[in-house]
Design a protein that fits this description.
Layout lengths: L2 H10 L6 H4 L3 H23 L2 H42 L1
């Protein structure tokens, strides 16, 4: 048994072998502990963020999509202009 597992079991008030009645091995136990710890960390991080920050992300996404649309809507004109210039230069040469 790993020392951390025994300490965690003592802190929970159960025997060190009790953890292995619910989990197949040490790796499975650690996987569950990691997932719960990361979920708790994510919840604490979400709780600490101001509400307006979420709306800022939404606004940034909208502006990004609008920019992509705007550039895409006018990009073909740039290609036509560029191709025309190349053809005119090639014709004069």
């Amino acid at each position: 048994m790993w020392p951390a597992t025994g300490a965690a079991a003592r802190a929970a008030g159960v025997s060190a072998a009790a953890a292995y009645r619910h989990f197949a091995d040490h790796d499975e136990l650690l996987q569950v502990v990691r997932k719960r710890a990361l979920d708790a960390l994510a919840a604490a991080m979400r709780a600490s963020l101001p509400a307006w920050l979420g709306w800022l992300g939404v606004l940034t996404g909208i502006v990004s999509l609008a920019t992509i649309f705007f550039v895409g809507a006018f990009a073909w004109r740039g290609w036509i202009l560029g191709a025309s210039i190349v053809l005119l230069v090639a014709r004069e040469a």
